[in-house]
């Protein structure tokens, strides 16, 4: 029987507000937008859209072995099976991420100060629950319920965020790192998926995700700006750790094992993936994804005050080059 849940030890102080004025108009505006833009996964998504699942769900160029001898040796039916299994794995990572985000945001409702921040975080809890619901239904109904286990990197990421008492760490790990990755991936899926139903789902989710990143961009700059250099350095370490977990742990090994690939072949595939990520090689879709992800991360780090010379080598260690034209802060 697969593991269906696990406990996470968590402790944090809850801030109980006694007055409810509008003190942060930008956050209150974000809350108003969240109320206005709610959608219903059961009512607003057209689940009746026809699609031949045998052709695969994702663009073949997104698969790690596309264009390699491993791909060439597969029959059309095997390629379709690989595509569907990879889609189940990829959407499973996003599904677990949405559930983890719901839990982190439920904690943020408690630990942040100010009614405006609490109100907005309450809406994000609802958003993440809806994303969890809609992705789970897609995997269950469209992909036959095939679901891979929670990856180790993702469990470590969310266990750490859930167990840390600091709202700044939760916000950076979730809103800055995980959400930025998710936005870039959902955008790519919305543009490249073969299934119109998945395209529609991703576009709905993207409507919410831009607000979620907005919370971090509005709430963090003033706080980080008042920190000591030592405190800021600690947040830079947290940011780098979250980036490592999010960007370097994602390899669909169980998919290749299900298709009969052995240890040596999986090692070759993994090495090919790393080489392609480190160089200019790769599909048009993957290049656009990296450009979108890296550009957004750099912009957001600069905006909140964490793009420093200390961060440059850390970012480059995970494949994010800081152009010479980008101004960084000096510690």
Features:
331 residues, mainly alpha, 0% strand, globular
Task: Describe the secondary structure blueprint for this structure.
Elements: H1 25-36, H2 69-72, H3 76-111, H4 115-141, H5 152-163, H6 167-192, H7 196-225, H8 229-248, H9 253-258, H10 263-278, H11 284-304, H12 311-317
Helix pairs in contact: 1-4, 1-7, 3-4, 3-5, 3-6, 4-7, 6-7, 6-8, 6-11
Give an account of the 3D structure:
The protein contains 12 helices and no strands. Helices cover about 65% and strands about 0% of the residues. With about 325 residues, it is mainly alpha-helical.
H/E element sequence: HHHHHHHHHHHH
The amount of beta strand, in percent, is: under 5%
Q: What Rg, in angstroms, do the CA atoms define?
A: 20 Å
- The low-confidence parts are none
Distance between the termini: 51 Å
Helix segment tally: 12
Tell how many strands the DSSP assignment holds. Answer: 0
Q: Helicity, in percent?
A: 55-70%
Q: What number is the mean pLDDT?
A: 93
Q: Could you give a short account of the major beta sheet?
A: none
Quaternary state reads: single chain
Overall shape: it is: globular
Decide which structural class fits the backbone: mainly alpha
Task: Write a concise synopsis of the structure shown.
With 331 residues, the protein is mainly alpha-helical.
């Amino acid at each position: 029987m697969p593991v269906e849940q696990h406990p996470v030890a968590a402790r944090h102080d809850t801030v109980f507000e006694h007055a409810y004025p509008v003190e942060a108009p930008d956050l209150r505006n974000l809350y108003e937008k969240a109320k206005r833009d709610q959608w219903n996964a059961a009512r607003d998504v057209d689940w009746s859209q026809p699609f031949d699942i045998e052709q695969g769900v994702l663009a073949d160029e997104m698969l790690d072995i596309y264009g390699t001898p491993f791909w060439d040796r597969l029959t059309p039916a095997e390629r379709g099976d690989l595509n569907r299994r990879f889609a189940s794995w990829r959407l499973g990572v996003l599904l677990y991420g949405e559930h983890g985000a719901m839990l982190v945001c439920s904690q943020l409702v408690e630990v942040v100060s100010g009614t405006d921040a609490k109100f907005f975080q309450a809406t994000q809890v609802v958003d993440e629950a809806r994303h969890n619901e809609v992705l789970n239904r897609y995997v269950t109904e469209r992909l036959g319920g095939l679901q891979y286990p929670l990856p180790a990197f993702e469990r470590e990421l969310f266990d750490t965020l859930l167990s840390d008492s600091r709202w700044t760490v939760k916000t950076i790990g979730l809103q800055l790192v995980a959400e930025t990755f998710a936005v870039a991936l959902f955008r790519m899926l919305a543009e490249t998926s073969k299934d119109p139903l998945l395209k529609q789902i991703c576009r709905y989710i993207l409507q919410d995700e831009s607000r979620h990143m907005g919370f971090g961009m509005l709430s963090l700059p003033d706080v980080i700006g008042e920190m000591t250099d030592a405190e800021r350095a600690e947040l830079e370490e947290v940011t780098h750790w979250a980036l490592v977990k999010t960007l370097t742990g994602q390899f669909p090994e169980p998919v290749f094992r299900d298709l009969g690939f052995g240890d040596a072949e999986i090692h070759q595939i993994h090495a090919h993936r790393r080489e392609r990520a480190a160089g200019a090689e790769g599909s048009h879709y993957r290049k656009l994804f990296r450009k979108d992800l890296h550009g957004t991360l750099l912009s957001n780090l600069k905006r909140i005050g964490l793009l420093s010379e200390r961060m440059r080598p850390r970012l480059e260690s995970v494949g994010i080059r800081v152009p010479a034209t980008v101004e960084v802060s000096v510690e």
